[in-house]
Amino acid sequence: MSQFDEVIPRLGTDSEKWDGAEELFGRKGIIPMWVADMDFRAPEPVLQAFKARVEHGVFGYSAHSDQVKDAIISWNARRHQFHFTKEDLLFNTAVVPSISLAIRVLTNEGDAVLMHSPIYPPFFNVTKETKRKVVMSPLKYENDRLHIDLVDMEEKIQQENVKLFILCNPQNPGGRAWSLEDLKQMVALCKKYQIPILSDEIHADLVIKSLKHYPLAVATPDYQDQIITLMAPTKTFNLAAIKASYLVITNEKLRDRFKEFQRYEHAAGLNVFGLIGMETAYNEGEAWLDELRDYIYSNYQYVKETLKKEVPEIGVTELEATYLMWLDARALAKDEKTLYQDIIDAGCGVQMGSGFGKSSYGFIRLNIACPKETLKKGVAALIAGIKH
Question: Which domains does the chain possess?
Fold first, then answer.
């Protein structure tokens, strides 16, 4: 039995995923398979480190120690061959605030910001909120995978005078671990037009074992001074609530501009549990993560096989990274709104493709980071809704 088989009740814990499901979906008893957090206990060394700090009992102002920075640097060198210095690091509470920060540092109001579609919704929501123009380049869905359309990207860059490209690497919601060649081609295009790149790599550690994550700055070192990398341990180790992330910026002048904005906002500090969680997870969470990746992939195989048997008209995107499955329901004789309501009525809470960009109407994003017992109930409800 795996440690990830344990069903841990989350109702009554102020969980957005579970306690927020009734309001979001309009009914009780929903099995939530929507927002991207896991139903697994964090690594035991992290829990013990939290307990030790609670027992210490003093929670004054915290600082970013060299030990935290060393843990980040060592982890990235070890897992991703991504080498940088302590001076290259900046901290922020979470990746979405860092996206907002980067857009404001690198562009002006009214500027065009390019991104793929489908994409994690804060990419375009934050862009709109900061009064920039969202420019989407649809990914092509072929052979159960998402693929970049370089011709469309270049046309959009030229037509819209794009000033920033935001990349999701690995890709959310499509679960794509971009290849080295994919990354080089995208960077070559941005280099041609001298466009800086913001690379959200929060899912970097969740690539399946047969593949490899390539940090964009590693894939294209000749352009790394125009790349801002966003990373965090929170998605990897199910620590979203501790609010701890970091930016890697090798360009000193660019990094100073980010620091200036952070000074203005007074938003560069992390809470003590964010610092403890980050350091401990990176130093002592490796075995936990390796087991987790096996467990998630076995969940993926279960869902894929079950859907093929029960609803073969549903296409299943090959999962290369993340714990989010991307299902193609366009062959069904239902519009997206009806399908969504049928799935909810059957007792499963999901996110529909149109929420990730208009090009993804008819797809479903399914979070499979849960114990097998929960997964089977949720998938049974999903299938019942599809068949309704």
Answer: 3-43+287-387 (3.90.1150.10), 58-284 (3.40.640.10)
